[in-house]
From TrEMBL:
GO terms for biological process: base-excision repair. One of its GO terms (molecular function) is metal ion binding. This is Endonuclease. SUPFAM superfamilies: DNA-glycosylase.
Length: 230
């Protein structure tokens, strides 16, 4: 990693100046954030919204309700989010975990069941919960200070020349964390949301719109994109 503390803080300021506060995560309750964190794996958010709307219409938005539901009903609700059988199993596993922790009634009370590192370890043991999902739950559902890293973050950081494309989740997370104010949940919330905004709309996988990018003047990849139309 070659990014300094100042680099990440500069990036944060540029993105915030450009797009402002993002008001993440788009959900009505912490449990809905947790459900969304599972359902958003390998699919667009618009598909997650459809699945969540179906869960609500079927009155299944609750830990006990999901655990008591039958497979056909639950899978039919999750259908729009893709991989619906896999996601149904993962959602049940998360709900079983919350129940075991005594958080079925109030899923956000999970944050009182231990320190952040301990909760993260436990979440990573739940079937279907990887690092990005665990950190999304910790940050956006439980309001704990941990940076979420995703494919957008990796692509942007590597194009800026701050890491290689082979950087691991843990390495990139450690690097960004070292630049953030310890304990600042709001800053982590915004930074991840802003990186998603940039990665989705401007720093696309192919033919990024570098001419519209607020990071261009310090971007190694962007400096090579001088041709008209970019
Ligand atoms: S200048 Fe281009 S490559 Fe660099 S971060 Fe912006 S959009 Fe991505």
């Amino acid at each position: 990693m070659t990014a300094s503390v100042n680099d990440w803080q500069w990036l944060y300021r540029q993105l915030l100046d450009r797009w402002g506060v993002q008001h993440w995560w788009p959900a009505k309750t912490p449990f809905e954030v947790m459900v969304g964190a599972i359902l958003t794996q390998n699919t667009a958010w618009s598909n997650v919204e459809k699945a969540i709307a179906r869960l609500q219409a079927a009155d299944l938005m609750g830990v006990e309700k999901i655990l008591a539901s039958n497979d056909a009903n639950l899978e039919s609700c999750l259908h729009p989010s893709g991989y619906y059988r896999v996601k149904a199993r993962r959602l049940r596993a998360l709900c079983a975990f919350l129940q075991e922790e005594g958080c079925a009634e109030l899923p956000e009370s999970l944050r009182e069941r231990g320190a952040l590192a301990n909760l993260r370890r436990k979440l990573l043991q739940v079937h279907g919960v990887g690092e990005e999902t665990a950190d999304s739950i910790l940050l956006y559902a439980l309001q704990l200070p941990i940076m979420v890293v995703d494919a957008y973050t990796k692509r942007i950081a590597s194009r800026l020349g701050w890491c290689t494309e082979r950087v691991t989740y843990a390495e990139l997370q450690r690097d960004i964390e070292s630049a953030l104010v310890p304990g600042d949940v709001a800053m982590r919330n915004e930074l991840h949301a802003l990186l998603v905004e940039l990665g989705k709309n401007i720093c696309r996988p192919r033919r990024p719109f570098c001419s519209q990018c607020p990071l261009r003047r310090r971007c190694a990849y962007g400096a090579g994109q001088e041709r008209p139309g970019n």
